[in-house]
User: Fold this.
Amino acid sequence: MPISGPEMHRSLIDGFKRLQNRLESTRQQSIESDDNHGELKDDRSEALLDLARHYLPELSATSIEATWPEVRSSLNSVLMRMQDKRRRCRLESQAVNDRRLIEEDRLIQLNADLDTATEKRDALATDIQRQLAEDETFVELSQRAAAAETALERAEANLNEIEQDAARKLPGFKKSTLFSYLIEQNYGTDRYGSRGFTRRMDRWLAKYIDFSKAKKSYDFLTQTPDQMRSIIANDRAALQTVMEEIEQRHDHVVKKSGLPKTIETVHSLTAERETLLKSLEKTRERSESLEDQLDDLENPQGEFYREAIEVFRRRLAAIKTTDLDSKAKSTVEVTDDQIVARIQGIDASLERLDEEQRRSRKTVRDLQRGLDALGRMMQKFRAAKFDAARSQFLDSFNVGDRIDRVNEADDIDDLWQDLRRAQRWGPSAAQQVGGNPVTSLLVGAMAEAAGAMTEQARRAAHRRRRSYSSRRRD
Assistant:
């Protein structure tokens, strides 16, 4: 059985939450590794202090204690500022994610309401078409409109043909000096007044150029277009009268059905959904921004780390492990050798831990990018209206399992392509009344009522709509 759009939408949201939890768990492991790293650093500092006490016997304990607290205070100041900012970022991130969940839940409910309203609109539209198709007067008027449209189209085509014929032939009449002369003299009409020789010459000229035949053609080309325009204007007026009667019966049934109110509800819910999608997009962008900040704050190579390490470097710049090792070997005592060995062991542990941290940070970074990509993919999913009730997906497509196997952003790109291939659209009556539902409904009802003249009735309705739109613009 196919998976519906709302079900797939819910699966994506659940998968997003699981991937988010997975990221948080991995990040927590990275934080614990950072703590271990800090402990090793503390151990090294203690070892360096022990070595300093050993190598500087002339210095008093008071002097040493006065020096190292200063280092620790500087480092603690940086650390506290980092922890404070990280705490504030986490609080805001949690608030943003909470808002995102609320908006996700609202979107699910809004989609359900929109699907219900759309189904109601389509059902009303179908019922209205049925009622109009059973209305004998509406059927008779639709057939009359179809017949009138056929006649009007034929007359318009004939007028166009005659106008093109006149455009080709009339210049020839005007170029004929003899024909133009007889026309100017009103030859062959009651207004012709020449006598005697002139009359005989005009009669000879008329016979010479076959004026009678040419005059008939000339009159046809000059007078017929105006006559046809008058006829066409009457035909259009007659068609408009029939269409007004059709619209009155159609509008009465539509108003009685409550369809306009349902259409208004669909428009309102659609607008609300678009607003919510924009809000979700802003929430997603803010969430990504906060996650980037957290990633930097929890990264030992981040801004605060660099500041702290610089403070520490300035204080311990004179102390190098190699120098300490060389000095320890040059003495006969073993105490300094033991302390340096401790430092070398800590350095080796730090190197291993640094490698583990690099791998952990890469995993966190890849998962974060995958999570961000999934958020963007979900926005595309909604923008394509794949979360609508009419949207369906192959039942073999397990989106939850795919999300659980996501390791990086490229996996989301592959998931989106596979998701699109698995998507199908179910049947909807709305496809039959596309565009403006009320006016499109009139077109469909007339087409159904006109029987064998379906296409003519459809064109008549479209002509009426264009005429109405033109009058509104004027």
